[in-house]
């Protein structure tokens, strides 16, 4: 088993690619401001899944990184909500991403709860 088999990883990775591409729709002056924050928070979701899985022999470490992952997902949604208001010309693209991140957040939360209840440090 690998983190690559996790649905939350697969979804987060695909969303990162979409988000990265969408961020370049923004005006040049915004690329290194809110656009950069959006790209970093989106990347942080998948990075925390990977790093947490690497420490999954320690259940509490794994849970902590899933909490970070969920927080980065919320941060990404917040950036998208700002962009929807600030750049109505691109709101359809950013609204679609926000909806997908909302779904991902639910999946991360369900997985985090599953790990809390079922993860065995001796027998992953």
From TrEMBL:
Pfam families: 23S_rRNA_IVP. Signal peptide: none annotated. Gene3D superfamilies: 23S rRNA-intervening sequence. PANTHER family: FOUR HELIX BUNDLE PROTEIN. This is Four helix bundle protein. It comes from Chryseobacterium artocarpi. The lineage of its organism: Bacteria, Pseudomonadati, Bacteroidota, Flavobacteriia, Flavobacteriales.
């Amino acid at each position: 088993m690998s983190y690559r088999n996790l649905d939350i990883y697969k979804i987060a990775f695909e969303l990162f690619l979409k988000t990265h591409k969408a961020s370049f729709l923004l005006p040049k002056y915004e690329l290194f401001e809110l656009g950069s924050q959006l790209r970093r928070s989106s990347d942080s979701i998948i990075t925390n899944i990977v790093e947490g899985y690497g420490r999954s022999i320690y259940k509490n470490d794994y849970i902590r990184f899933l909490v970070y992952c969920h927080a980065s997902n919320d941060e990404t949604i917040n950036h998208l909500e700002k962009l929807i208001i600030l750049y109505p010309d691109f709101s359809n693209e950013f609204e679609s991403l926000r909806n997908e991140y909302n779904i991902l957040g639910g999946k991360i939360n369900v997985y985090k709860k599953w790990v809390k209840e079922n993860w065995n440090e001796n027998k992953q």
